[in-house]
Write a structure and sequence with these properties.
The complex is a heterodimer of chains A (about 300) and B (about 350). By secondary structure, chain A is mostly helical. Chain A has helices spanning about 5, 10-50, 60, 75-105, 110-125, 130-140, 150-175, 175-185, 190-220, 220-225, 245-255, 260-295. Chain B is elongated and about 65 Å long. In chain B, strands 1, 2, 3, 4, 6, 7, 8, 9 and 12 form a nine-stranded mixed sheet that branches. Classes of the chains: A mainly alpha (about 300), B alpha/beta (about 350).
């Protein structure tokens, strides 16, 4: 019963006041930090929309590049991006999820596993242009794939693979161990446990991570320039061995031209790129929503 | 049952590989056997790469060629003149865009791979020296003054305008120029300093000429250099200096580039055609077309056309399939017709 006595001292009041001030200041600073990210995004959207919205039209999306800024379109770059993205997903997602399942569910906790884990975490931080050099030497030259959609997709697969693995493992870890133990206790094998219990439960967070990793792939420019993606491609890519260009490279090319009309085309191109990105994120949200509703526990 | 399962597992990837291979063949072999050569019925793919300066011209030619020969897929990339030659001499490209003549070590690299080339000048590029529009103390600059500003010895010592010319005010001198990967940098250093790639390093460098335009337009004490096209698009924000190469002050203009008086800051731009690629009819048709339209399209995208006499010589050089280089090691400032006529 010393507390009431203490609360009356000036010392106690002073400390209380100071703690509340510190708390209030921290809340304001944290709110500024949260708003700063949004503010940057809004500013970007406003600037890009102001420059590019007039230029954006169906013709812009369906036309090939041109030296006339008013006729230049984004068709081959958009199709190139979608091709590369599709193939990258086809390579990186199965391998990445497979690696994550092995490391999380099967790998014995020994030195080899630790080396693999450390390496994957380090690879996730390697600058993408380094993968570009690897892609140039390995896929373009050694495997003689040339500067094709396939070579680009394989290179980007390398870029996103560590990110896919890391985020897929995070997803697997959200499944409580009790689910696995219950399944094993009922006589299921390890694989049956993974396939019937863990994977369905971890699908939502895994797919969210995977799609965010692929969103990174669609914005990558450096590794594709390194392997020699082209700039003026006035036709659709028909197969994995065709030449290609992608949205960020086309935008970069327009920005670096002297005529202001091309800068508007670049802004319109950025809007298309953002739309593709937001579309992919929307898919990630939809998957999460849908599979969380199906979860039975 | 188990055996069947295993067979299925190995067969699926094999079948996938086979499909990929088949698609690949379909994609790359087009046009190889096509020898008819008439209008509009060629097919195949032509790969062009190299200088970012020449890119707009090759792009324009490729765009127009598509109307004549819709079956031929012409793609154009940018990897810099040097990077372009690397791919060209590796047999990866058919035509290389270049903003400077090929170098000896590049010729050797090509020879090692058994690749020979035909060198074709297609247009002029002119470099402009620009200052801020409010700059009222300089209208004309001599090559010696430019050299004093830009040579490697100037680094850290020449930092004020009056150090270059006592008649100019005591103001800080801030320099803007292209980065070392650029063909423009190679050319400027050779023409002004006298030695290729010899330049001070303490200036604001960017591979993107728009950044240089922004820099000079926003700095009253600035001086910078870049391609004529970028100046012509931004006339209102910049002031171009006349250049005195020994025969008085000459304004950077299309007229003065053609008549050969804007020296030494105008340079020819080239395409190099691989003799191996030339065996394909679609490549021959494309280069025929390129040589015919280069002048018109080059001036349309902001460069300066060669004199008609020079285009005649270029066409002749192409039609007689003369390989090798005439421009390697040529001192800047010579009339292009004279260089082209040397061989005859």
């Amino acid at each position: 019963m010393t507390a009431p006595a203490l609360s009356k001292t000036a010392e106690w009041r002073h400390r209380l006041l100071r703690r509340h001030i510190v708390g209030a200041v921290a809340a304001v600073l944290l709110r500024v930090a949260a708003v700063a990210g949004i503010a940057a995004l809004v500013l970007l959207l406003v600037v890009v929309a102001r420059d590019g919205l007039d230029r954006l039209s169906w013709d812009f999306i369906t036309s090939y590049p041109s030296r006339f800024a008013s006729q230049a379109g984004i068709r081959s770059a958009l199709l190139g991006s979608l091709w590369v993205l599709g193939l990258t997903a086809a390579f990186a997602v199965p391998v990445g999820i497979g690696a994550a399942i092995y490391l999380e569910e099967f790998a014995p906790p020994n030195w080899l596993t630790r080396i693999i884990e450390t390496n994957i975490n380090n690879l996730a931080g390697v600058p993408s242009i380094v993968y570009g050099l690897l892609g140039l030497a390995l896929f373009v030259r050694a495997m003689e794939l040339g500067r094709s959609v396939l070579a680009g997709a394989l290179t980007l697969s390398l870029v996103v693979l560590p990110i896919v693995i890391v985020s897929a493992r995070e997803g697997l870890r959200t499944v409580p161990p009790s689910i696995r133990e219950a399944s094993l206790a009922l006589g299921a094998t390890r694989w049956q446990t993974v396939w019937h219990q863990v994977l369905p439960a971890a699908l939502a967070p895994m797919m969210t991570g995977v799609i965010l990793a692929l969103s990174r792939a669609i914005g990558e420019t450096a590794p594709l320039i390194t392997i020699g993606a082209l700039l003026f491609v006035p036709f659709d890519p028909h197969g994995p061995l065709d030449s290609f260009t992608v949205l960020p490279i086309q935008i970069f090319n327009w920005v670096s031209r002297p005529q202001p009309a091309f800068h508007q085309a670049a802004a319109a191109g950025i809007i298309v790129l953002l739309a593709v990105l937001l579309g992919m994120n929307a898919i990630a949200i939809a998957i999460r929503y849908w599979s969380e509703r199906r979860r039975q526990w | 049952m188990r055996a069947l399962h295993l067979a299925g597992r190995t067969l699926v990837p094999l079948a996938l590989l086979a499909v990929l291979a088949a698609v690949g063949c379909g994609g790359t072999s087009g046009g190889a056997g096509d020898l008819s050569g008439g209008a509009g019925d060629l097919s195949g793919r032509i790969v062009i790469d190299g200088s970012s300066t020449v890119f707009p011209i090759s792009e324009a030619v490729a765009e127009e060629f598509r109307i004549e020969q819709p079956g031929v897929e012409v793609v154009v990339g940018i990897s810099g003149t040097g990077g372009g030659f690397q791919k060209f001499c590796n047999g990866e490209t058919d035509i290389s865009d270049a903003s400077r003549p090929i170098r000896q070590q590049e010729i050797d690299a090509c020879r090692n791979k058994g690749i020979d080339f035909i060198e074709l000048p297609v247009a002029f590029d002119a470099l402009t020296v620009v200052v801020h529009p409010s700059n009222d103390w300089v209208d004309c600059i001599t090559v010696a003054e430019l050299k004093k500003m830009w040579e490697p010895a100037a680094q850290g010592t020449i930092t004020r305008w009056n150090q270059v010319n006592p008649g100019w005010p005591d103001r800080p001198l801030r320099l803007y120029g292209p980065g070392t990967d650029s063909g423009t940098f190679d050319y400027f250093t050779e023409a002004i300093v006298g030695k290729e790639d010899a330049s001070r390093g303490d200036y604001t460098a960017s591979e993107d000429d728009n950044v240089l335009v922004q820099g000079v337009a926003g700095d009253a004490n600035a001086l910078g250099y870049f391609g004529l096209a970028y100046y012509l698009e931004n006339r209102s924000r910049l002031k171009a200096l006349k250049v005195d190469g020994g025969q008085g002050c000459v304004e950077p203009s299309v007229q003065n580039v053609i008549n050969g008086t804007y020296r030494p800051l105008s340079r020819p731009l080239f395409i190099y055609v691989s003799t191996r690629a030339m065996e394909r009819p679609e490549v021959r048709a494309f280069v025929d077309f390129y040589v015919d339209v280069a002048g018109d399209l080059a001036s349309e995208v902001g460069y300066v056309r060669l004199p008609d006499a020079a285009y005649d010589l270029v066409r002749q050089r192409w039609q007689t399939r003369r390989t090798g280089t005439l421009f390697q090691g040529v001192e800047p400032g010579l009339r292009i017709e004279d260089i082209l006529a040397r061989e005859r």
